[in-house]
Design a protein that fits this description.
Strand order of the largest sheet: 2-5-1-6-7
CATH superfamily of the largest domain: P-loop containing nucleotide triphosphate hydrolases
Radius of gyration: 24 Å
Largest sheet: 5 strands, parallel
Shape: elongated
Structural class: alpha/beta
Oligomer: single chain
CATH topology of the largest domain: Rossmann fold
Bound molecules: 2'-deoxycytidine-5'-monophosphate
Number of domains: 2
Helix content: 25-40%
C-alpha cells in the first residue's frame, strides 16, 4: 500500500490544482503537479523547434534533459526544474498546454515521466494531481479522487485564470479547446485519462473550493476511523453509580492509542524512537451517562492537521446512544529537545 500518496486525477480545468494544493496545505504535506512535467517537455521542444508529435526528436531531447521536482529558493511546494531553471509561469501558456497534451501521448515520454513522478513521492507524503496518478503512476495509492465539473463551469474557471487562455478567448472557444484536450488525453493508448475503479468521484460544478476540500478531508479521515469496545468496570463509576466524567478522557486516550496502532505504529514504539504527542487541548461534551457493565463503543479519527498540530476527535456510545463526544489537539515533538516535528509526514514515514 503506497500510503505516501493522495492521488487526484481529472480532466482539464476541473479544479484539480486548487483542490490538490489546498488539501496539501491543510494536511501539512507537499503538493506535486504532474501536468507541469509534460508542459516542461512541450516548453523545451518548442524552444528547440521540435514538433510535439516528433517522437524520435523528443526522445533524443529528453536524453539530454535534466528534470527534477525541486523546492524553489523562496520555498513552497516542489516545482519543475529543467536544465537548472524553473520555467514557472511560462508553462501555463495555452499553446504549452496543448503541446503538453500532445507530448503526453508519446509512450517514451510517459515512461520517462513515470520515474520522475515516483521519485518525487519517495521520501515524503504528497498530494499528486494529474490524469493517471491513481491508475498508472501510483495504482496502490491509499487515497484516490477523481475530480470533475461540467464543461461550462470548467471553461469559466479556465477563463478566469490569468494567462491560461488566449487573448480574446470566449467561454465557447475555451470550452472547445478543453474538450479537444480531454479527448486526446482520454483516447491515447498509454495511461489515458480515466477514473480509477477505487477512486472517489467528486463533481465540483456546484461546490466552492472549501466545500471540495472539506469533502476530500472527510473521506481521508473516515478511512482512518478506529472503533473499539469497552465494558465499564465498577472502578470507573462514582458514588452516583455513573461513569466518572474524567474517565471519558481516558477512553479517548485508549482509542487514540488504537488509532496509532492501526497505522502500524504503537505509542510506545513512538516514544522509543524519541517522539511524543502531548495533549495541547482537550474538549469533552457530555450527553448521557454510562453505568457499570455497559458495553461502550469508542471511536477516534484524525479530523484536522495544521502544521505540526493534529486534532483527534472521539465519540463514546452505548448502542446507538451518544454518551460523550469531543476532541484533543496534539503536537508531535522530539523528546530530546521538546521541539515540534512535522507531524503527519513524520508519522507516515515512521509507519513505513
Ligand atoms: O494538468 P495540466 O493541464 O497541467 O496537464 C497538461 C497536459 O499534460 C494534459 O492535457 C495531459 C498531460 N498530463 C498527462 O497526460 N498525465 C498527467 N498525469 C498530467 C498531465
Amino acid at each position: 500500500m503506497s500510503s505516501n500518496v493522495i492521488a487526484i486525477d481529472g480532466p482539464a480545468a476541473s479544479g484539480k490544482s486548487s483542490a490538490a494544493k489546498g488539501l496539501a496545505k491543510r494536511l501539512g504535506v507537499l503538493y506535486i503537479n504532474t501536468g507541469s512535467l509534460y508542459r516542461a517537455v512541450a516548453w523545451k521542444a518548442r524552444k528547440n523547434n521540435i514538433a510535439f508529435q516528433d517522437e524520435t526528436a523528443i526522445t533524443e531531447m529528453l536524453d539530454k534533459t535534466e528534470v527534477i521536482y525541486a523546492i524553489p529558493e523562496n520555498g513552497g511546494n516542489p516545482d519543475i526544474r529543467i536544465d537548472g531553471t524553473f520555467p514557472g509561469e511560462a508553462l501555463r501558456a495555452p499553446e504549452i498546454a496543448a503541446g503538453a497534451s500532445a507530448v503526453a501521448a508519446l509512450p517514451p515520454v510517459r515512461a520517462w515521466a513515470l520515474g520522475i513522478q515516483r521519485a518525487a513521492a519517495e521520501k515524503t507524503m504528497v498530494v499528486m494531481e494529474g490524469r493517471d496518478i491513481g491508475t498508472a503512476v501510483f495504482p496502490d495509492a491509499k487515497y484516490k479522487f477523481f475530480l470533475t465539473a461540467s464543461p461550462l463551469v470548467r471553461a469559466k474557471r479556465r477563463l478566469a485564470q490569468e494567462g491560461e487562455a488566449l487573448d480574446g478567448a470566449t467561454v465557447e472557444s475555451v470550452a472547445a479547446e478543453i474538450a479537444e484536450r480531454d479527448k486526446r488525453d482520454s483516447e491515447r493508448a498509454v495511461a489515458p485519462l480515466r477514473q480509477a475503479e477505487d477512486a472517489v468521484f467528486v463533481d465540483s460544478s456546484e461546490m466552492t473550493l472549501d466545500q471540495v476540500l472539506d469533502l476530500l478531508e472527510k473521506y481521508i479521515s473516515k478511512q482512518k476511523e478506529v472503533t473499539m469496545t469497552y465494558r465499564v468496570p465498577y472502578a470507573d463509576t462514582d458514588k452516583m453509580g455513573v461513569v466518572y466524567y474524567a474517565n471519558y478522557l481516558v477512553y479517548f486516550e485508549m482509542c487514540r492509542s488504537e488509532l496509532l496502532r492501526s497505522l502500524g505504529y504503537t505509542y510506545s514504539q513512538m516514544e522509543e524512537d524519541g517522539f511524543a504527542m502531548p495533549v495541547l487541548e482537550a474538549v469533552c461534551r457530555y450527553k448521557a451517562s454510562a453505568h457499570f457493565e455497559d458495553l461502550l463503543t469508542i471511536s477516534a479519527t484524525v479530523t484536522e492537521i495544521k502544521g505540526v498540530r493534529m486534532q483527534i476527535s472521539c465519540t463514546v456510545k452505548c448502542g446507538d446512544r451518544l454518551l460523550a463526544e469531543g476532541y484533543t489537539w496534539h503536537a508531535c515533538v522530539s523528546m530530546k529537545n521538546g521541539r515540534p516535528v512535522a507531524l503527519l509526514e513524520k508519522l507516515l514515514q515512521l509507519c513505513k
